[in-house]
Amino acid sequence: MNGSDKYPFPQGKPEDHPSFSLLYDWWQQLNDNRGERAILRRAASLTEVMLSPAYMRLLRALRSRGYAIGNSNAQLAKIAAIAGLAARIKEPVSDGLAKRMGTPKSGSKPVFSELRLRRLLACDDIEELYTLLRRVLALLGDQANLADLAAIIWYWAPLDEKRPYDPRRRLAYDYYAIAPAKP
């Protein structure tokens, strides 16, 4: 594994990366085990997700493949958010999350309002992000691109860290590219 591959869920062409295949396989196994899936779907907090066997299985699988996931609270919380939200996805789709959020429903309003988008983009706390993304998935009928969702969560960081690959930028660009313009 080279230096650029030591972290899972890279942004860009996510479906090409082995970590996404691993996540998708884990998600399919979860669909075959309704009890574990239900535990994750009901988890209202990241701590509840972290206490589930399915989360531990995903974490162990990523580590066993050599991905650099330490014991930092931030990394473990991100894996928990990915696991908890992936369990909510009933059907994977190819469109990215922001594109689906900005797609007009009936009339000229997007599925996800601009006000809610701004609240999501201002979020710094991973626990709050988890809650907000649960609502996003509910509005989208629990359909999302699993790889895109994982990449967004993995690279999420507080705004003051100013990272070059901040997923907020891509979310905003993709959302406004598809959302109907206000008059």
Question: What do you see in this structure?
Answer:
With 183 residues, this protein is an all-alpha fold. The protein has one domain (8-178): Orthogonal Bundle (Peroxidase, domain 1). The protein has ten helices and two strands. It has helices at 18-32, 34-42, 46-50, 53-64, 73-86, 97-102, 114-122, 126-139, 146-154, 167-178, and strands spanning 91-92, 143-144. It has a two-stranded parallel sheet with strand order 1-2. Helix 4 crosses helix 5 (73-86). The termini are far apart. 36% of the residues are buried.
Question: What is shown here, in short?
Answer:
It contains ten helices and two strands; from the N terminus they run H-H-H-H-H-E-H-H-H-E-H-H.
End-to-end Cα distance, whole Å, is 50 Å
Secondary-structure content class: mainly alpha
Provide the spatial order of strands within the biggest beta sheet.
1-2
- Record field, number of beta strands: 2
Count of DSSP H/I helices: 10
CATH architecture identity: Orthogonal Bundle
Q: Which geometry do the CA atoms define?
A: globular
**Biggest β-sheet strands, sense, barrel:** 2 strands, parallel
Mean pLDDT: 90
